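Researcher: Here's a chain I'd like modeled. Treat it as a single chain, no partners, no ligands.
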Amino acid sequence: MFKPLLLAFLAALGTASAASTEKVNQQFDVSPGGRLVVEVEFGHVEVSAGGDNHVDIQAERTIASGDKEEEKAYLDSAPILVSQNGNTVTILAQRQKGESNHWRGNVTMNASYVVRVPRSFQAEIHSGGGNVQVRDLEKETKANTAGGKLNFASTRGSLEGSTAGGDITVNDCEGSLVLNTAGGRIDATGGGGTFSGKSAGGSIAVENFRGDTTVRTSGGRLSLA
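Model: Modeled as a single isolated chain. Structure tokens:
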């Protein structure tokens, strides 16, 4: 007698607590030498080199608050918007300035943006809360996050990276490299050009970098090899 009632209760509980999910999968035809712009309120962003004539985007956001109306209201206020203007592809997922949500309980928010672009694309990336990873690009890259790690590998061209709350890792990057973290360490291996690294709260280690190197930390050790 009690088993059907228990199963019904568990089914209802699972339905009530299920997360709201938004997915975007899109491809744009482009030519080499374009630009990618990413501006997202939260989430991990991964950008790497792909085909020479297209940009591939896979984006997913999940929000769980236990209140479907709250979740829908948030997603409606800041949908994932993907657009193309000439040879520039833009990904936006941000609420209007001054707009805020008043969650009535605990909320879990996760997002990932995986993007493949031509190797010769510029990239400008901002996440309000998540890790950023960039690999194999040959033009200017600018990336910052307010709450995550930065990871750069095999980039060519000027690189600017800043994070307010995480470590920075750089592997085999060449060009003018400018890296800043307010709450983590910086580790760089290989590569060449010019290197500037600053940390307000962690160590800095630079190994086998070919070129002028300037490092400064307010709260950790310095290692140059």
